[in-house]
């Protein structure tokens, strides 16, 4: 049911943990299943030089988090914002249709972390946001602020 790549990233997830001096941190949750993903980015000169994650969730959520951190490393902020849940799933050689929604967490976590980075660096106008702009219908995905 799962591709070898999904199983590999689930059994041996890359980039698990926190980045102490991350300058972009985003946390998102899926209201339906309760799964949560937190993404830490270290961004220098507009390039993502490091990415780590912590995910409390299903196997597909762990695997897509792992792949998402691999995909964003070395990318510019603009390039990272173009990564869709579809692209994350394709990089894992696909997900079963019933688990595609899990990849929405990864796309939204990237966007939430970049949003945080932009906000901290005065790069966002009031009210502007890169998150909640998922290319799919992500009605179930919501951002979680640290004080929640
Ligand atoms: S079942 Fe919740 S993210 Fe997969």
Q: How many DSSP H or I helices? A: 5
Broad CATH class: Alpha Beta
Helix content: 25-40%
Main structural class: alpha+beta
Question: Care to describe what's here?
Answer:
- There is one protein chain.
- This protein is α+β, with helices and mostly antiparallel strands and 148 residues long.
- It has one domain (4-143): Sufe protein. Chain: A, CATH 3.90.1010.
- It has five helices and four strands; from the N terminus they run αβββααααβ.
- The chain has helices at residues 4-11, 59-72, 77-81, 85-91, 102-120, and strands at 24-30, 36-44, 47-56, 141-143.
- The protein has a four-stranded antiparallel beta sheet.
- β1 (24-30) and β2 form a beta hairpin.
- The longest helix is centred in the last third of the chain and has 19 residues, at 102-120.
- The chain is globular and about 45 Å long.
- The protein binds FE2/S2 (inorganic) cluster (FES).
- FE2/S2 (inorganic) cluster (FES) binds next to α2 and α5.
Topology:
Layout: H1 4-11, E1 24-30, E2 36-44, E3 47-56, H2 59-72, H3 77-81, H4 85-91, H5 102-120, E4 141-143
Antiparallel strand pairs: 1-2, 1-4, 2-3
FE2/S2 (inorganic) cluster binds next to helix 2 and helix 5.
Short description:
It contains five helices and four strands.
Please tag this protein with its features.
148 residues; 4-stranded antiparallel sheet; binds FE2/S2 (inorganic) cluster; Sufe protein. Chain: A; globular; single chain; 20% strand; alpha+beta
């Amino acid at each position: 049911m799962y591709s070898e790549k999904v199983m590999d990233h689930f059994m041996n997830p890359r980039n698990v943990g926190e980045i102490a001096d991350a300058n972009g941190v985003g946390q998102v949750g899926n209201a339906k299943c309760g799964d949560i993903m937190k993404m830490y980015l270290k961004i220098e000169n507009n390039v993502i030089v490091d990415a780590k994650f912590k995910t409390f969730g299903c196997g597909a959520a762990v695997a897509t988090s792992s792949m998402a951190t691999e995909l964003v490393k070395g990318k510019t902020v603009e390039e990272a914002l173009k990564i869709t849940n579809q692209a994350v799933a394709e990089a894992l050689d696909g997900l079963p249709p019933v688990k595609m929604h899990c990849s929405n967490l990864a796309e939204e976590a990237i966007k939430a972390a970049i949003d945080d980075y932009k906000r901290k660096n005065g790069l966002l106008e009031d009210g502007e946001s890169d998150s909640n702009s998922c290319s799919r219908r992500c009605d179930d995905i919501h951002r979680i602020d640290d004080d929640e």
